[in-house]
Amino acid sequence: MDVIMMTSMDNLGQMGETVSVKRGYARNYLIPKGMAVTATEGNRKLVAEHMKLETKRDSLRKAGAEELASSLGEISCTLTVQAGDDEKLFGSVTARDIAEALKSENMAFEHRQIILDEPIKQLGVYSVPVKLHAEVEVMAKVWVVKS
User: Domain check: are 39 and 98 in the same one?
Assistant: First the structure.
């Protein structure tokens, strides 16, 4: 079944693209959640108007994110964790832990905005990217110290 994407999804397609998906996936998930519409000529016109409005909104969001990034300057937080003698952690530090530490520093970020390739398992100082917008990132310095 061909559908037109109303939002961008990493593994499926960008907003405005026509993609082919299984009928059940479109009918039970994409269309009810408003992520896609069926590919008809009327819907193509509707999506074109939607894309114009969304690009304006996105440019405003990007400008706001760039302003926030410049006002934040350097972000840093300290996490005290239990570790062994060889500086390995008992457990690991995840994006949720970093988000909580930043929240205590009066900077509210969602854990999805913090980009960690893998959890931190060693003591040390790490530079972690925080994604404010799809095109705007700011680096956070995370200090992982022994308690």
Answer: no
- In three-state secondary structure terms, 53 is helix
Quick check: 147 and 84 in contact, CB under 8 A?
Answer: no
Q: Return the SS3 of 6.
A: coil
Domain containing 111: what range?
73-146
For residues 76 and 91, give the distance between their C-alpha atoms in angstroms, rounded to a whole number: 21
Measured CA to CA, the distance from residue 113 to residue 109 in angstroms comes to 7
Q: Residue 70: pLDDT band by 50, 70, 90 thresholds?
A: confident
- Number of domains the chain is built from: 2
- What is the token pair recorded at 50? 């939607």
d(CA 139, CA 6) in angstroms, rounded, equals 31
- Is the predicted pLDDT of residue 60 greater than 90, yes or no? yes
Predicted local distance difference test score (pLDDT) of residue 61: 93
Same domain, 79 and 60: no
Are 142 and 100 within one domain? yes
Structure tokens at 85: 């003698």
- pLDDT tens, position by position, 87-135: 899 999 999 999 999 888 888 889 999 999 999 999 999 999 999 998 8
The verdict on 98 and 59 lying in the same domain is no
